[in-house]
């Protein structure tokens, strides 16, 4: 009998303590889970704030030559779009951005226009990219099929820029010249065309990496890892929007502030008062959202 294990005898107080402990344990687990979850949320928020703090303060305009980028620049900074020749220098100016809330002050934002010339744009883009708070990439809707390789090359460089991904720089792809005729590509067709071009670009660059490194290359510089095709929705750390419109036209904007380097714009001397179809409201609304949300 002595060698057999004795069943422990608990007093009423002991039993009450054990019962209370069994109730406390699940509550402790829940509280620990909530603390961990809250910590993750705080760290994610802090990371986003730090990235935003390292952003520049300028709106940067990019695009291939003859896309209407410099005309957009003059429209925003001077209120009237001038018919321009290919710009060979960085243009700088500013505009007054009205606050959507009428009782709050407007903001003056600085704008940088990067030349689209193939020989110099990479140099100027590299020099100015740290100034970007947001980017507008301008596309000529009338020639995008013919220029799709050049456009996608430039766009690939922007999308694969690590600093933009880390800082979550928002990107607007502006499909310009929608007023010229009814045969222009639509936003959806342009988006699909660029996705196909960027898919081929990823494959080409992945093959190049494989050749130079002597091993399997990576095609996930942009897009989704392990996915063969590219879609803009695959990029999660850059907010990408598409809008259409037209820079040229008889719409005289009232948000221009002043233009710092007017001598750098090579104009044909023609203002666009006689044209029709100007529509930049979608561009302006997008810029408002970026500047007044932070």
Widest sheet: strand ordering: 7-6-5-1-4-3-8
- Proper CATH architecture of the largest domain: 3-Layer(aba) Sandwich
Low-pLDDT stretches = 48-54, 215-220, 250-277
Derived from helix and strand composition plus strand pairing, the structural class reads: alpha/beta
What's the total count of β strands? 9
Order of helices and strands: HEHEEEHEHHEHEEEH
SS element count, helices: 7
Distance between the termini: 79 Å
Family: Belongs to the SRP receptor beta subunit family.
InterPro entries: P-loop_NTPase, Small_GTPase_ARF, SRP_receptor_beta_su
Pfam families: SRPRB (PF09439)
GO molecular function, one term: GTP binding
Features:
Rossmann fold; 7-stranded mixed beta sheet; two-stranded antiparallel ribbon; 9 strands; 40% helix
Describe what this molecule looks like in 3D:
It is a single chain. By secondary structure, the protein is an alpha/beta fold. It folds into two domains: 31 residues; 213 residues, Rossmann fold. Helix content is 40%, strand content 18%. It is built from seven helices and nine strands; from the N terminus they run H-E-H-E-E-E-H-E-H-H-E-H-E-E-E-H. The strands form two sheets. The chain has a seven-stranded mixed beta sheet with strand order 7-6-5-1-4-3-8, sandwiched between helices. Strands 2-9 form a two-stranded antiparallel ribbon. Helix 4 crosses helix 6. The longest helix is centred in the N-terminal third of the chain and has 42 residues. The radius of gyration is 28 Å and the shape is globular. About 14% of the residues have low confidence.
